[in-house]
Amino acid sequence: MTTDRSLREEPQLTIRPKPSAFFLRRRFLRAFGPALALAVSGLVALLLTGTIAVPFHQSLVLRGKMGSKSDLFEDAKIQEILMRHHIRVHVTRAGSRDVATHDLSQYDFVFLSGESAAGLVRRSRANQWTGSARQPFTSPIVLATYRRYAETLAENKIAKKPAGDNPLYYTLDTEKFIQAMKRKQTWDSLGIAKFGAANGNQVLAQTSNICDANSGATYLILLAFLENGRQVPVVDPHRAGEPAGPPNLSSAQALANRIKPLVVAQGFPSADLSESYANLAEGDKPIVVIYEHQYLAMQLRAKAQSGQADTDRVLLYPQDNILTKPQFLALKPEAERLGELLTFDPELQRRAMELGFGVATPTGSTKSARLYDFLRERGLPSPESAEDDSTTPLPDNLVLEEMIKTAGDCP
Asked: What range does the domain containing 116 cover?
């Protein structure tokens, strides 16, 4: 019997499953799964915050020139907030008067520490476009010192110590302080040994260069105001019958020469006194003139890092103080947007307070009310002694410039 080979068993076709994609294989998932999950969660967070869209929008790059207010734009959180508004800021640091007296053609905006420097910029750019002046923050000049020096001044009735243990804020009798400087008293002669120190240096306040920095010039104004019998220095009036001519500034020059020894006694001025105050030994510069926001920012950092304030560093608030009003000036139209954000954006305002700045908006609020409430929220005492900030009037720009040049031998 023959067998037909065609009737034999038919061949079978084996169908194998399609190989999994490499990123779904077990070996890959074991090795890279956790990192992949983290990346996905990060992507979701970026989508929710809207940050992922930032690289895909063209950013507006603005160049600014300023002094101590560069603290704001060098802060990482401020940079992040501005990036969400598609703005990047490049800062050149210089003192406010230095900013105002040099060429600004390569800059989009300036952020000056006071009204006098802003006036100089406007005058130098009389035929060029300049945006409206904005005052998003306030920060008075203060005298930063160390507890044993403040206690020594209080012991001599030159400063007033508030009630309570380890206060951070003292009130300085500016007239008595100036008298101690004029008599060339030393810390040893004031009895600092009682508080565990020895310092034969003359009692004085160290300032930044008055030729460059608004804080130094503001301190000069304070000295001049008191030296002039609490009268604002003015241009000498023309005598009857004299022909009209250039302003007579002889009285301003004479006044500046009377207070010049108090400036010269400081020696060579430092560039950034807030840094030296935070990092150097207390005997090097026992009292320095800085801005309130620089001190408060330091205390907010100390509180965040250690849970308590730095009780060794304290402030002296002058009885005759000058509330400085930082001025943001757009030099090109595209910088106006940045000025609006600094003045009105809630995120930027809150971060500015975290950096110690007083915020003057919304309309009708005071910087004391918002900033000092914020300090209390963070567990820090508020400087109640400074709530009534002095409004020592500023002299005319012509008078101020003449006094700065005379007392500081400035160009």
From this structure: 57-138+326-349+360-376
